[in-house]
Amino acid sequence: MDQPLNQEIELTTRARTNMTGTYRAGMLALGNAGLEFITRAVQAKNFTWLPWAQIQYVWIETFFGGRLTRGFQVTTVDGDQWEFNVAHAQTVLAYMARHLSSRQILQDGRTWRPTKTAE
With 0-12 CB in 10 A as exposed, 13-18 as middle and 19+ as buried, what is 44? Predict the structure, then answer.
């Protein structure tokens, strides 16, 4: 597993994840094959791969009546859950919508509708 998951990276952004009870900072890369979270933390695994085909749904974390999106939680078909806080969450979600169906991206129990399109 020395090779990256994606052959093409569409978007990268700063991110934090809480997988073991403590937050780890790193970079989230979205590409043609899935999500990659890369961290330089020596006490943790350096990367996490989530292929698009393994993502069951994405639950969006919103505040102020849906006006502010801070992050999201990814649930895989195996039942694993990954929580990400990202910079520019609306842009990240718009890129994710290119690879996931509208029924897989949920906000407050409803299907998510992007407020702006990814460029």
Answer: middle
Question: What is the Cα–Cα distance from 99 to 102, expressed in whole angstroms?
Answer: 10
Cβ atoms of 83 and 71 within 8 Å: the answer is yes
Residue at 111: amino acid letter: T
Rounded-to-integer distance, Cα 96 and Cα 108, Å:
18
Model pLDDT, residue 51: 94
Instruction: Name residue, tokens 């849906």.
Output: 66
Beta partners for residue 20, in sequence order: none
Residue 36: which residues within 8 A CB-CB, separation 6 or more? 4, 5, 6, 28, 29, 30, 47, 48, 49, 50
DSSP label at 67?
T
CA torsion through residues 47, 52, 58, 62, sign: positive
Q: DSSP letters along 9-40, please?
A: EEEEEEEEEESSSSEEEEEEEEESSEEEEE--
At 12, is the pLDDT very low, low, confident or very high (cuts 50, 70, 90)? very high
DSSP 8-state secondary structure symbol assigned to residue 8: S
> Average pLDDT in the 80-99 region?
89
